[in-house]
Amino acid sequence: MRGAITTENTKEKIFSDTEELIKKIIEENNLKIDDIISIIFSATKDLDAAYPAEAVRNIGITTIPLMCFQEMNVIGSLKKCIRVIIYVNCNNNRKITHVYLKGAKVLRPDII
Q: Please, are residues 42 and 63 in contact by the beta-carbon 8 Å criterion?
């Protein structure tokens, strides 16, 4: 599952917006924590106040491997954006819902 959210460059906003994104993905996909294999975050270079993964630990997800990367700086790309990919155990019949919130909705107008 994929998702993204725009935020501000403060630890508090990075944490609260990351939490909002992860909780929404879990809710929309009816996930249990045990379903999640790993979570990988990327953040644009203008977000450097905190790691998004730390926010996930703060909401009690402590047994899942997490990773954060910094995105390439591409001219004209969306600013102050956190993207996520969540790997889950599932069968081929599972409906997957990707979640794009706030300004990141422009990244996937086909699913909004």
A: no
Q: Which residues pair with 4 in a beta bridge?
A: 83, 100
Q: Shortest CA distance to 26 belongs to which of 49, 76, 60?
A: 60
Per the listing, tokens 């944490």 go with 15
Write out the catalytic residue numbers.
2, 57, 68, 71, 83, 100, 108
Dist CA 42 CA 47 (whole Å): 10
How far is 43 from 71, CA to CA, in rounded Å? 6
Distance CA(53)–CA(33), nearest Å, equals 15
* pLDDT averaged per 10 residues in sequence order, the chain, 112 residues: 98 98 96 94 97 93 95 92 95 86 93 70
pTM above 0.85, yes or no: yes
Helix (H) or strand (E) holding 53: helix 52-58
